[in-house]
Design a protein that fits this description.
heterodimer; A: 357 residues; Rossmann fold; 8-stranded mixed sheet; B: alpha/beta; globular
C-alpha cells in the first residue's frame, strides 16, 4: 500500500527524536507583570510513544503544548530545559530555534475550521510550508501533499486537493490538518484536543490514525485532552495537570484502575458512565483554578476532601508512588478507599416548595 | 405535562451557486415520541442527525414541514404568534449548550431572571427580587453573584443561571440541548445532579438532546437514536445502551472510550445476536 511506503521511507529518513521537558516554567506578560501559567513541568516522550496530558480549563495543558512549539504570546518567558533529540531548544539562537520548531514540531488543534484559511484550497494549505521551508517546486510539493493525504486515510486525494475547507466534513478536515502538521516531516506531533469537536465515531477513527502514524513514523505524540477515559486508551503514559502543574503520572491503564492524586480520584468519580446510572454523582466542590489564581500550598487544597494543614502551607513535590508519580502529601495512603463525600448543593425541600410557585 | 410529538418532518431548502438550483435537505423524517409528565427522554445522534432541529420544533423556534407537537392533548401552533409564544413559554423552556453565549452580556444574572418573572406577571413587582433569590437558591447559586454579568462567571455558574432563568417561567418541561458539553468535567456532575433534583422535586419533565451517551445514561429514562434525520432505535436507556439492536447504535456505543478500552469490546461488534452487549455493572 502507498501509505506504508510513505511511512517507511520517512522513518528511514529520520532518526526519531525524544522530547524532554525538564523543570519548565512559562510566564506570560500581563501589563508589567509576569505571571506563571505552567510551573516546573517535567515530561518525556520517546519516539513512537503517545503521552497524554489531561486537565480542565486553566490547567496549563495548552500552554505546555504552546511552550513546546514556541507559539506563545509576545513577552512570554520560558525557563528550564526543552530538549529535542538531546539539544536544548531554549539555548539556541532565536532564529535557529524557530527553524527547528517549525520543522520538527507539528501541531493539531481542536477546531480545524478556526485554523485553516477558508479561502485556501486544501492543496495550498498543504504545500505552502513545504515550498517555503523545504524549497520544493510546485509539482514536488504537490506530489508530497497527495502522499500525505493518502497516508492519513483520505480517499481520492487528487480530488480533495482541489476542494475548499467548507466542502469537507469535520473528520475529513481534521485529517487534512494532521497531513499539514506532518508536511515538514516532524519528529513531534502535538494534538491539542484534536478529537474533542468530533463525533464519537469520528473520534475513534482519528485516534486510531494517530496511533498508526506514531508507530509507523516514530513520532513522539503529545495527546492533550480533558477526557481521562480517552487518554487512558490512547496513551502509553498519562500526565494529569492541575493549575499549571503535573500532579500525577501513570503508565498504561493504571490511571483508571488505581488513581493516586485526590484530584484524579474525584475527577474519575465525578464522570457519568455509560455502564450504569449512579444515584448521585460525587462532586468536586468549587471550580478549576489556573496557576495564576492558585492558592498557596498545594493548588488543589481548597477543593480537596483529604487536605491537611500542611497542604495549605507547602507545595508537595512529585514523588514516586505505586509505579507512578504523584504530587500529594498523602500520596502513600490509600485515599481511594475512603468513601466519597457529597460536596454539592442539594435542593432543600423549602426551596423546591417555593419553586412550585 | 404530557408531550407528544407525531410524525415530525422538516425540510430545509439548500441553494447552491448564484442562480441557485435549490435542493431539499430532509433534516427530520417521521419522528414520533412521547415524554410523560415527570419523564425524561433523551435524543442522541451525531452531527447532522437532526436532533437539535427536533428540539427547536418542540419549543416553537422552528416550524415543522409537517407533523404536530401536542401538550396534554392540545395541538400546539407550528408558528406561534406572540400570545401563543407566551403560553408556550410557561409550558416549556429551553436551555442551550453554551451558557455564556445564551445569556445577555449587558444584563446581570439577577436582571435576566427578574425579566422572565415580570414578563409573565408571575409575582407583583414588590416580590420579584425575593423570587429571584429563591430561584438562585434553588439552582445552588451564591446570592452574591446576583449582580454579576455572565462574562464574569464560570461556565458552570452561567449554566446554573440559565437553568434558574428557565425555571422562572415555572415550566413543566425543560428542553436541554447539550446542557453540560461546554463545561469542565468536575462541573458537569454538579449540573447533572441539579437537573436530576429538579426533576425529582418539582416533577419537571426533561427532553435532553446530546451526543454524550454517559450523560444520557445518567439523566434519561428513555432514549431515541437519530441518524440522518431518522429514528433508528428507541427504548429504555437500559435496553438501548446495554443491548443496542441497530448497527448504528452499536457503532456509537463502541466508539465511547470507556467501551473501546474494555478488553471484551473487540468481540461484540458485528454480532447481531440479542446477547448482552456489555455486562451491566
Amino acid at each position: 500500500m502507498k501509505a506504508t511506503e510513505v511511512g517507511s521511507r520517512d522513518t528511514a529518513e529520520r532518526r526519531g527524536m525524544s522530547l524532554v521537558l525538564e523543570d519548565v516554567t512559562t510566564y506570560l506578560q500581563f501589563g508589567r507583570e509576569l505571571k506563571s501559567v505552567i510551573l516546573h513541568v517535567d515530561l518525556q516522550i520517546e519516539p513512537a510513544e503517545i503521552v497524554g496530558l489531561v486537565g480542565e480549563s486553566g490547567s496549563g495543558k495548552s500552554m505546555t503544548a504552546r511552550t513546546i512549539a514556541g507559539v506563545l504570546p509576545r513577552g512570554a518567558v520560558t525557563e528550564g530545559r526543552l530538549l529535542l533529540g538531546g539539544e536544548n531548544l531554549l539555548e539556541m539562537p532565536r532564529r535557529k530555534r524557530r527553524e527547528v520548531q517549525a520543522k520538527e514540531i507539528g501541531f493539531v488543534f481542536q477546531d480545524p475550521r478556526a485554523y485553516i484559511d477558508p479561502l485556501w484550497r486544501v492543496e495550498v494549505h498543504l504545500t505552502e510550508a513545504m515550498r517555503v521551508h523545504l524549497g520544493l517546486s510546485r509539482s514536488e510539493a504537490r506530489g508530497r501533499a497527495i502522499e500525505l493525504l493518502d497516508s492519513v486515510g483520505i480517499d481520492q486525494p487528487e480530488r480533495r486537493m482541489r476542494q475548499f475547507p467548507d466542502e469537507l466534513s469535520g473528520g475529513m478536515l481534521q485529517r487534512v490538518m494532521i497531513a499539514g502538521a506532518l508536511a515538514m516531516g516532524p519528529s513531534v506531533l502535538l494534538a491539542d484536543e484534536a478529537t474533542t469537536a468530533l463525533d464519537v465515531t469520528t473520534q475513534a477513527e482519528i485516534v486510531k490514525l494517530l496511533g498508526d502514524l506514531s508507530s509507523k513514523r516514530g513520532l513522539s505524540v503529545l495527546f492533550i485532552t480533558h477526557d481521562l477515559a480517552l487518554a487512558d486508551i490512547v496513551c502509553t503514559r498519562v500526565c494529569v495537570m492541575y493549575a499549571g502543574r503535573i500532579v500525577e503520572v501513570r503508565e498504561g491503564r493504571q490511571i483508571f484502575e488505581d488513581p493516586i492524586h485526590p484530584y484524579t480520584i474525584d475527577l474519575l468519580a465525578a464522570r457519568p458512565t455509560i455502564l450504569h446510572r449512579v444515584e448521585r454523582l460525587p462532586v468536586i466542590k468549587g471550580v478549576p483554578t489556573s496557576a495564576m489564581d492558585a492558592p498557596s500550598g498545594c493548588p488543589f487544597n481548597p477543593r480537596c476532601r483529604f487536605a491537611l494543614d500542611e497542604c495549605r502551607k507547602a507545595t508537595p513535590a512529585l514523588v514516586p508512588v505505586r509505579g507512578g508519580l504523584a504530587r500529594c502529601f498523602r500520596a502513600h495512603e490509600d485515599l481511594k478507599a475512603l468513601s466519597p463525600e457529597a460536596n454539592d448543593v442539594e435542593l432543600s425541600s423549602e426551596d423546591s416548595n417555593a419553586l412550585e410557585g | 405535562m404530557l408531550l407528544k410529538v407525531e410524525s415530525l418532518y422538516k425540510d430545509f431548502r439548500l441553494r447552491s451557486g448564484l442562480l441557485g438550483r435549490s435542493s431539499r435537505l430532509q433534516a427530520v423524517k417521521d419522528i414520533s415520541f412521547v415524554v410523560p409528565g415527570s419523564g425524561s427522554l433523551a435524543i442522541v445522534g451525531e452531527t447532522g442527525s437532526g436532533k437539535t432541529t427536533v428540539a427547536r420544533i418542540v419549543v416553537g423556534l422552528e416550524a415543522p414541514t409537517s407533523g404536530a407537537v401536542e401538550a396534554d392533548g392540545v395541538v400546539l401552533s407550528p408558528k406561534p404568534g406572540p400570545d401563543e409564544r407566551r403560553r408556550r413559554a410557561r409550558m416549556m423552556q429551553m436551555v442551550f449548550q453554551n451558557p455564556v453565549m445564551s445569556l445577555d452580556p449587558h444584563q446581570s444574572i439577577g436582571a435576566a431572571i427578574r425579566e422572565v418573572v415580570s414578563f409573565h406577571s408571575l409575582r407583583p413587582s414588590s416580590e420579584c427580587d425575593a423570587r429571584v433569590r429563591e430561584l438562585l437558591n434553588a439552582v445552588g447559586m451564591d446570592l452574591r453573584l446576583t449582580q454579576s454579568r455572565p462574562q464574569n462567571l464560570s461556565g458552570g455558574q452561567c449554566q446554573r443561571a440559565a437553568i434558574a432563568r428557565a425555571l422562572a417561567a415555572e415550566p413543566e418541561l425543560l428542553v436541554l440541548d447539550e446542557p453540560v458539553s461546554a463545561l469542565d468535567v468536575s462541573t458537569q456532575a454538579q449540573i447533572l445532579n441539579l437537573l436530576a433534583d429538579l426533576k425529582a422535586r418539582l416533577g419537571i419533565s426533561l427532553l435532553t438532546i446530546s451526543h454524550d451517551l454517559a450523560l444520557v445514561r445518567q439523566l434519561a429514562d428513555d432514549v431515541i437514536v437519530m441518524c440522518k434525520g431518522e429514528m433508528v432505535e428507541a427504548g429504555s436507556v437500559d435496553d438501548v445502551l446495554s443491548r443496542p439492536q441497530h448497527a448504528y447504535t452499536r457503532r456509537l456505543v463502541d466508539a465511547v472510550p470507556e467501551i473501546m478500552g474494555r478488553p471484551t469490546a473487540g468481540s461484540a461488534p458485528g454480532s447481531v445476536t440479542g446477547a448482552s452487549h456489555y455486562e451491566d455493572a
